[in-house]
């Protein structure tokens, strides 16, 4: 399979300067933190309504590292890169643009929002409950900043017989050719990853392909406690200049798993804060999410003051509305519904039930869209959007099965309508990438103005 299809943004590659900020990154082994629901505490934290329970976490095992790019000059701008350095950028042909990205006023930015440091990245910033985006064009110019609606999907790709033991970084590359058309067919404008893309020319090409298709990326760069600061900042520095980057993600519902192995929640919170601050220092042009399972209690929320936004994984049957109410009582920052939905297997009838998944997809996505902060920047609209779980099935999740068979294992949870999470049936498409009914349902919703 060819890893990429038509790259309409190949012309942008001639002016986009990518600098490898790392040298000798290695692949790390570690706990499995990706893929399907984990069995989380039933109460799910503050904001859960009676009779519902939070589910635990999907997500990719972070820390898989690709080979650094060789750097060097791309196009006529910038200088050759050195391992460990940060991209200095350079002019890219936009009228009035400079290596620092131009003045705020000339870009239509508010006076309190600095212009981007990068000469090639899009400008993304938070305004109240809104996520504002000024997309970068191939000639270096900016679109006017506008409120962004995340019409997204969570992406954790595997094929028959594959696992995520080494993370998803290289799996994004190997499945990009089939999955990017599926993502664009949804009319999605955003994907959320569970690992960074492979730090290589292929990783950059995948971002090119997504951006040419109108899709931006929320990239998880640190999900596990043993991902080193050098590793996740290397990913940030490698990809931060690409216009497809929307935001960075830290953790994957870290409160359920303590970043997959930290001694306790307080230790995990400390690691999260270190990561957020390090990412901000490496890249002032993009906001940073922290991923939490269910609405956080005040004690947890108050200990992570520098997260720009919170990505909340929610599985409360068919009720997201109560979570939006709980969020605005807690925070004046934007929230993303980082995971939601239902699987396509009915544990009562012990058979595939696509209609059940359709009902959950339609009901929950509609509730998110009714609370888009792009509609109104107020407490009635605190959500920047959602990234439904997930694009395609993964067959490795049932620990009593094999990665080559489609198994039915899982656990009881507040999932519509059977109260059971069947781990290997969450895809909007099958593992062979055949769309289910829910795929068509979500595509119709995302196609709405």
Strand arrangement within the widest β-sheet reads 4-5-6-7-8-9-10-13
Total strand count, please?
15
Q: Please outline the major beta sheet.
A: 8 strands, parallel, barrel
Radius of gyration, Cα only, in angstroms? 20 Å
Distance between the termini: 35 Å
CATH C-level class: Alpha Beta
Q: Tell me the number of helical segments per DSSP (H or I, 4 or more residues long).
A: 10
Poorly predicted regions are 1-101
- Beta-strand portion reads 5-15%
Average pLDDT, all residues: 82
Number of domains: 1
Q: Name the CATH homologous superfamily.
A: Glycosidases
CATH architecture: Alpha-Beta Barrel
Overview of this protein structure:
It contains 10 helices and 15 strands. It is an alpha/beta fold. The chain has a single domain (10-14, 30-65, 147-446), classed as Glycosidases (TIM Barrel, Alpha-Beta Barrel). The longest helix is centred in the middle third of the chain and has 18 residues, at 265-282. It is globular and about 60 Å long. The two termini are 35 Å apart.
Which structural traits does this protein have?
14% strand, alpha/beta, disordered N terminus, 8-stranded parallel β-barrel, 449 residues, TIM Barrel
């Amino acid at each position: 399979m060819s890893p990429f299809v038509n790259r309409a943004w190949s012309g942008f590659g001639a002016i986009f300067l990518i600098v490898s900020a790392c040298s000798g990154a290695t692949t790390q082994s570690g706990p499995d933190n990706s893929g399907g629901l984990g069995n989380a505490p039933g109460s799910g934290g503050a904001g859960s309504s009676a009779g519902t329970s939070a589910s635990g976490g999907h997500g990719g095992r972070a820390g898989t590292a690709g080979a650094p790019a060789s750097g060097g000059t791309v196009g006529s701008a910038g200088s050759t890169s050195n391992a460990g350095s940060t991209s200095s950028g350079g002019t890219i042909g936009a009228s009035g643009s400079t290596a620092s990205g131009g003045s705020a006023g000339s870009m239509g930015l508010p006076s309190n929002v600095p212009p981007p440091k990068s000469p090639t990245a899009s400008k993304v910033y938070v305004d109240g409950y809104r996520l504002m985006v000024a997309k970068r064009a191939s000639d270096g110019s900016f679109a006017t900043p506008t409120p962004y609606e995340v019409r997204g999907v969570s992406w954790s790709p595997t094929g028959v017989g594959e696992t995520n033991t080494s993370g998803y970084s290289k799996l994004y590359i190997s499945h990009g050719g089939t999955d990017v058309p599926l993502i664009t067919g949804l009319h999605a404008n955003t994907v959320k990853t569970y690992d960074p893309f492979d730090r290589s020319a292929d990783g950059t090409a995948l971002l090119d392909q997504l951006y040419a298709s109108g899709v931006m990326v929320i990239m998880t760069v640190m999900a596990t406690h043993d991902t080193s600061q050098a590793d996740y900042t290397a990913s940030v520095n490698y990809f931060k200049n690409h216009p497809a980057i929307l935001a960075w993600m830290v953790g994957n519902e870290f409160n359920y798993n303590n970043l997959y192995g930290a001694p306790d929640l307080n230790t995990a919170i400390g690691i999260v804060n270190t990561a957020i601050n390090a990412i901000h220092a490496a890249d002032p042009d993009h906001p940073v999410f922290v991923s939490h399972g269910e609405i956080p209690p005040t004690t947890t929320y108050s200990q992570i003051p520098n997260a720009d936004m919170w990505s909340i994984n929610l599985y409360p049957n068919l009720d997201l509305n109560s979570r939006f109410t709980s969020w605005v009582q807690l925070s004046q920052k934007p929230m993303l519904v980082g995971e939601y939905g239902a699987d396509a297997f009915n544990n009562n009838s012990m058979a595939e039930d696509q209609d059940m998944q359709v009902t959950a997809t339609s009901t929950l996505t509609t509730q998110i869209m009714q609370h888009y902060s792009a509609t109104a920047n107020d407490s009635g609209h605190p959500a920047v959007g959602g990234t439904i779980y997930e694009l395609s099935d993964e067959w490795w999740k049932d620990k009593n099965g094999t990665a080559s068979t489609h198994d039915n294992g899982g656990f009881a949870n507040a999932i519509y309508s059977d109260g059971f999470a069947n781990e290997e049936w969450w895809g909007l498409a099958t593992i062979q990438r055949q769309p289910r009914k829910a795929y068509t349902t979500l595509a119709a919703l995302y196609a709405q103005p």
